[in-house]
Amino acid sequence: MMLQDVFTHLWDGLVSRTTGPLKFRFFLQPGMAIFLAVRCGLRDSREGKPPYFWAIFTDPAQRRELLHDGWKSIGKIFILAVALDCIYQIIVLRWLYPFEAIMVAVLLAVIPYLLVRGPVNRIATARKAPGRPSAAGQADSTSPVRKAGIL
């Protein structure tokens, strides 16, 4: 019964954070996380990497590298989300609840990032024409090789 009370308190706290001071962060932080996820997903597609979230679970050999890459991309937004929630708690609740701050940061920064990066990679990879090299592998149209008609 106690665990249910914790989740009820957490849910009520999340809902109450959508109004009042600092409510803009519920749009700004997921927006920034999605922007970074799109950027990283497009990069993954160009480099021929597998979808991010799926690869974390299915490729134990690269899991550490993938997690490091993801944290490098989303870490600052996560820390900002924790800091803003702590400021909100001090202003409104007059107390600090670190677990709630971390949960809000996960909800606002990490989850949108995880949900968007892999599908962007899949969509970008699917949009590439079959048999056509990626942008990184194409020769420049002004190169002497292309002008000579070799390519």
Polypeptide structure, described:
Helix content is 72%, strand content 0%. With 151 residues, it is mainly alpha-helical. Helix 2 packs antiparallel against helix 4, helix 2 packs parallel to helix 5 and helix 4 packs across helix 5. The longest helix has 31 residues. It is elongated, with a radius of gyration of 21 Å.
What value does the average pLDDT take? 84
Q: Please state roughly what percent of the residues sit in beta strands, choosing from under 5%, 5-15%, 15-25%, 25-35%, 35-45% or over 45%.
A: under 5%
What portion of residues is helical? over 70%
Q: Count up the domains.
A: 1
The rounded distance between the terminal residues' Cα atoms is 70 Å
Instruction: Please tell me what the overall shape is.
Output: elongated
Low-confidence stretches: 143-151
Number of helices: 6
Order of helices and strands: HHHHHH
Topology, number of strands? 0
**Helix/strand-derived class?**
mainly alpha
Largest sheet, strands/sense/barrel = none
Give me the Rg, rounded: 21 Å
Protein topology:
Elements: H1 2-16, H2 25-46, H3 52-58, H4 63-93, H5 98-127, H6 144-147
Helix pairs in contact: 2-4, 2-5, 3-4, 4-5
List the main descriptive attributes of the protein structure presented here.
151 residues; mainly alpha; 6 helices; 0% strand; disordered C terminus
Describe, in short, the structure shown.
This protein is mainly α.
